[in-house]
Structure formats: C-alpha cells, structure tokens
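I would like you to sit down with the record closing this message with an eye to the fold:
=====
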Amino acid sequence: MKILEIRNLCKVYGKGETQVDALKDVSFDVEQGEFVAIVGPSGSGKSTLLHILGGVDRPGSGEVIISGTDISRLDETKLAIFRRRQIGLIYQFYNLIPILNVEENMTLPLLLDGKKPDKELLADLVEKLGLKERLSHLPNQLSGGQQQRVSIGRALMNNPSLLLADEPTGNLDSENSKEIVSLLRKFNREKRQTVIIITHDERIALSADRVITIEDGRITRDTRDIVASPCGEALKSLEAATGSPGLQPGAEKEVSVS
C-alpha cells in the first residue's frame, strides 16, 4: 500500500538573479513499511524535500499525498493538526525543550493535541529506547545519543504514518550513530513503521531498503531493495552522491541491524 505519493514537486527560492530551483519536477512513491534513504551532495535539495514532506515548508507546485491526504492543499491550521497526528520528525539537533524532562518531552505533542498519552505505548518505547532510568532527567543531563533517542520516542508517540529523519546521526559519534540507526530499523521492522532518512553516511544508506539520490533538485537514481541488489550498484549511487570512494568490501556488515 502506498503511504506517500509525490507528484511533480517543485520549489523555488528567491527571484531573478538570486533565484534557486531547489526541487525540479520530483516524483516518487513510498510503500508502507519501507525504509528509504535519501542521499545527495550539500545543496542538492534533499533537506528541502524532507521539510516539504513533513509539512514544515510548502511546495511551489505539485502534490504531496500522505495516507490519501494531499497536504499541499491544507490550510495552516489543518496542516499543523495533520503534522502532529500523522508525521514524526527527527532532527539532527534533537530540538528538545530544555526545561522538560524525558517523559514530558516525549509526550508533549500529544498534550498539545489535547490527548492523553498512551501509557502502554510510552512504556514500550521507553523500554526499547533504553530510557527507563532517564525519565526524570532534563536534556542537559543526557548524552547526545540519549537526547536523540528521546527525539525518536517523541516522534513515535503518535504512531505516525510517516517517520522523517533529517541527518539524525549528524551530531553523534560512530557508536551512537550505529545505535540510532539500529533503533530506527528495529521500529521499521517490528512495527512496519515507514521511515525516510536524509543522510550523508553511505553506511547508513546501505542499511536501507532503498536509496534515492538527488542532485541539483532532481532525482538522478532510485534504487529499490538495495539490500538484495549487487553491492557495487548501490555503491555507485552513493559514490556519485557523496563524492567518496565508498565502503571497503565487507564494511557494509558493520551496519547490519536486527
């Protein structure tokens, strides 16, 4: 079942000599339960795309259909409600409220929506995220990896149709990065949570089901099921996007998760 449908998406910033075509006629679909990595060089349009998918930014033209709703046609009030209820956002810089503890940060979106937190879901997420002993801690009492786990828990508290992650490991060391990706993969596999992740890390991309490469605002490659594809083909896509020489043989095993 298609959870996301993108049709002829365009986005332009500025006018005249300062005009930038951030997205140029982008179209693709995502099935429920897919784990999709979007890669590309800086300035390629991938973060703009993610912000539009998350309802944080508006497209210039085109359609963004999530669970049958074209969010590009919603007014600001309806879009804010839809975003709270259907989309989970994870950012590179965590965006936690410094005066709220772990439990309060995780349940805040529900409270803003006038809903009571599902205690059973909260307990399950806290257990899976390894935050059981940290519920009363403030963000400044947590490590970077723990703060990112809190942001993941916050994004999942509404059982969103779509989980969007913008460079979620960008501020973390390699060990914490592996743990965060492993957690995202765990929720993807166990709960069929649809995940779209923006990343510069080709090892993370190689752990995805599918890699979409964006260059100069256009999709230049869309490789489905890269786990089952020849590794060389996946690496060619990633090398073109990142300009790096790719992984050494066998290195992709380091990011295998269960």
Q: What stands out?
A: The helical segments are 46-53, 76-86, 102-112, 119-129, 144-156, 174-191, 202-206, 231-242. The first strand starts at residue 2 and ends at 13.
